[in-house]
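Backbone geometry:

***
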Amino acid sequence: TEAPLSLAQLCQWNIVGPRKEDISEETTYCNPDVLSSVLTSKNVFDELGEREIQRARLRSNPYETVGKVFFQNRAALKMANLDAVTGMMFTQPLDQNGHPMVTENDVLYFADVCAAPGGFAEYVIWRRKDFSNGFPDVHGFGFTLRSNDFKLQDFYAAPRECFEPHYGESGRAGDGDIYKPSNVRNFCRFVKTATQGHGVHFMMADGGFSVEGQENIQEILSKQLYLGQFMVALGIVREGGNFVCKLFDLFTPFSVGLIYLMYRCFRGVALHKPNTSRPANSERYIICKWLKPGTECVFKYMFEVNEQLCSLNKTEEDVVQIVPPEVIAHDTNFFNYITHSNDTIGRNQTISLQKIRLFAEDPSQVESRQGTLRSLCLKLWQVPDMPRTAPVREQPNRKVADLLKQNSMDSLSGNTEELSTPHCLTNHVHSIYDYRFVVTAVPSQQNKSRAFYLGLSGRNVYRSNSLSINSNASSSWERLALSVELPPDTLLYAELVDEIRGMSVTPPSPRDVKSDVRNQRRVMALHVIDAICLNGFHVANLHLVERHRYLRRFCRAVNKSSRPDLLPIRCKKLFKLEEVPLVLNSTLLSVRQVKNSGIHRVMHSRDMDDADGIHIPATGILLISTTKKPWMMAVSKTNKRKYFYNTITKEAMFETKVECIAGFSSSYNSSLLWHWNHGTVVLGNDKGIGGELADSDSDDNSGDQQPSCPKKKKELLHLKHLVDMVQSIVTANSFLGKSSQ
């Protein structure tokens, strides 16, 4: 194992010399006859007309009819080809020990660079969903020229909501030019931040531009593009991650030096020309496997070389070498590999160019294997032979009725039982082990912000306070006027929340309160409580904890931190009811002054993607049942384990069976809301708290709120009542004393 390259060593390798515009003498890394044949054969493009070449190429290429099937372009099938050839190392990456790199609590992060309009990304998202049984556990970052942008509207095969274009400096407002150092620096920083500092699991790059009339120097014209794509890969791919990039000729010392640097940075490197790459062109792909640690110096070196190329642009000088020839020659394995690759691809290209000439001269000739090879390729790449069809737009009530029927669910109303007194608590909660809870953040129970949200693709998001299985019933769905994007076939139970950014984590001293308030800003977000369907993946019949596992990954997949114009989408933190004393304490929950809203309870959320976390208004807790009636949970005194108990048949068992699990319908119908009305004591210092927190979604709140005080004087439910119940049960270690276990 060779030691990582140092920046001081690398900078000594850089040589600037006269700019070259001819590669006919670049024979160090190939057979001279091969290079001569390739350059001579390319003259076919000068001798034949464009239409003649096009027709001859279509008839002579045995893989031409593979086409694009249901994707937006041929590039998608090219990535399918590369993925299959490498054992799906991109969409199902494994580490060196053969273990999946994407854990069950993570999503697959990838980047698609210089690859508009997005065929590569469309394939990856589709394939990942296919591997995950329809669940979209994938998020892609795009970086390309703004003038040649991604066509997200053409993502028919995969949800475009899982893809996030970025354009370097200024983010969405940038130009996406990979030659600009500021763009590279900003894009790398953005990706690292968005992936919690880890980087992507793999990066794809497919950059290219027209070289009509200059085919023989395509390599020289593309050198900075090669460099830029390699540089970005080293800046954003995580340790152990992978990289694939389109290249053309590789005869010059500069190009071979780039390949050598990647060879030193990854544990495995290969040059491959896939069947989907037309055989008569110079195109090939570098495939890099498992990024090594300690490659930061190579990234910095490439960054400096790129700055040099920018400064030497439009001069007579150029960077002609980045790795000394003797260093490459000394590594005989690498030298022999690059030479053999150039010779093999060059000979095959020469044959294909000559074949085009023959087919152009004789229009009756046709490659007879096209149909057979097309079927064989699609089978080997595991791509269905289906036509491309545009998605069908459906009415909200019909889509919801269809989703409910697929999950064997009935209609659901928008009413939630409220816990307002100690009697309500003891009357409804028979076992604390039957419930989990989330902290709510909307002003009152009737507020329409806590509702069902239906995604029909992009900003076609609708809201309703009830679900009906009758598709012909009058629609209760209203289109959301706010900027929220959800993939199609998504049905969530969520609430709109005014997150508070800039608030100090700990309460400020009296002298610092004004400064703390001044730094605050409120950002509306969609906080998801539960789900029925996630982009066609049904979760309604799973356990609540399992539904939340999927929800957390779903929110990571569709959330776009670079889009301040879109509402963030977050999964609410789920707590066990027995953890109430630990959660609702002064560490997480505090009484604070909120900008333009007075004194309120707020909760600090540490598990959000934001580096400093956020605060949310805390207006109550929603208890969500995990056990389906007539079952309930208790703790065995003898075995010190939780078990299920049937209150009708008196049956008891330790194992979890389907009939014990509360699906979405049971959880929703059994949910209990403890709204912290005026006078509710939670922390003990609640007297200074004002009325409801002013809600920026004010149009939805008019006329719906309950009075802050009940008309009839009654004992309010306070936190002490709930804590006393929890502590007495946990201390006793069993709720069902009559159980035999």
Observations:
- The chain has two domains: 7-61+75-380, 396-732.
- The CA atoms of residues 429 and 435 lie 8 Å apart.
- Residues 396-732 form one domain.
- The longest strand covers residues 521-534.
